[in-house]
Design brief:
This protein has six helices and three strands. By secondary structure, it is of the alpha+beta class. The chain has a three-stranded antiparallel beta sheet with strand order 1-3-2.
């Protein structure tokens, strides 16, 4: 049986909760992920983390994913980039890291043109407002 090379942690947060409470939950997720990685003998400083956020009305579901080994290499290679709703959720959650980092975390390596094109396509297909993604599309 192959050794796992990724881990995921998910939490649902109410948008109406105070920003401090929501940020506390996200910080706790990062801490808990690190503790779990240490528990299975993975150095939390040597993994790649990726956030994803899915909006459902007043609720947002945040997923923190950790990748190492083969899974990390696969993402960084740019061979299997995210598409559609998965791409939108990943791009939205990682936009604050900048376009290069968001593209890398979404599986596009350094191909920013392909990242922008696929993100634009996904936004149009899902009928989302492009203004929410201006930082990544500019």
């Amino acid at each position: 049986m192959p050794k796992p090379s990724q881990a995921h942690l998910e939490r649902t947060i109410n948008r109406k909760d105070p920003i401090e409470d929501r940020q506390k939950t996200l910080n706790q997720m990062h801490y808990y992920m690190g503790a779990k990685l240490v528990e299975v003998r993975i150095d939390p400083q040597k993994v790649m983390y990726r956030w994803s956020v899915e909006d459902r009305g007043d609720l947002q579901t945040f997923t923190l994913s950790a990748f190492w080994g083969d899974s990390e290499k696969k993402i960084l290679s740019g061979e299997n980039p995210l598409k559609g709703e998965e791409l939108v959720n990943c791009a939205k959650a990682n936009a604050s890291a900048g376009i290069k980092q968001a593209a890398t975390l979404c599986g596009y390596a350094s191909n920013l043109d392909s990242f922008r094109a696929n993100l634009t396509k996904a936004i149009q297909e899902l009928e989302l407002p492009e203004e929410s993604f201006q930082k990544l599309l500019a």
